[in-house]
Design a protein that fits this description.
This is RidA/YER057c/UK114 family protein. This protein is an alpha+beta fold. The protein has one domain: 60s Ribosomal Protein L30, Chain: A (2-Layer Sandwich). The protein has two helices and six strands; from the N terminus they run βββαβαββ. The chain has helices at residues 38-56, 76-86; strands at residues 5-10, 15-20, 23-26, 63-70, 94-99, 109-116. The protein has a six-stranded mixed beta sheet with strand order 1-2-3-6-4-5, with helices on one face. Helix 2 links the parallel strand 4 (63-70) and strand 5 (94-99). The longest helix is centred in the middle third of the chain and has 19 residues, at 38-56. The radius of gyration is 14 Å and the shape is globular. 26% of the residues are buried.
Length: 117
């Protein structure tokens, strides 16, 4: 029997979240105020992640995997200051982080999360 697939905040190109078989897959999220520094953008992105996880029926304590893209590894320490405060103690997900060319030059960080329901 096929498991249902639920798509949240969908348009023709993407869904902000996809729920399947007890797992939530979030699309990459970026800051709305791109004039903010890395810490400000990271706070905005993690707030969006929290909102999307809540809409899917879960929260960051059930995060399984986090992928973080930075526009430059020079932002690594500043992003980590905010990220480390966001993580639920004792429940850190698997994580990777790297620098890539993001969709626009004023995007400093993009974050994807996979979580259990």
């Amino acid at each position: 029997m096929s498991q249902p697939i639920t798509r949240l905040d969908q348009n023709a190109r993407r869904s902000r979240a996809v729920i399947h078989n007890g797992t939530v897959y979030l699309a990459g999220h970026t800051a709305d105020d791109r004039s903010a520094d890395i810490q400000g953008q990271t706070r905005q992105v993690l707030a969006k992640v929290d909102e999307m996880l809540a809409a899917a029926g879960t929260d960051k304590s059930k995060a399984l995997n986090v992928t973080i893209w930075l526009s430059s590894m020079e932002h690594f320490a500043g992003m980590n200051e905010v990220y480390d405060a966001w993580i639920v103690p004792g429940q850190a997900p698997a994580r990777c982080c790297g620098a890539i060319e993001l969709a626009a030059p004023d995007i400093l960080v993009e974050i994807m999360v996979t979580a259990a329901l």
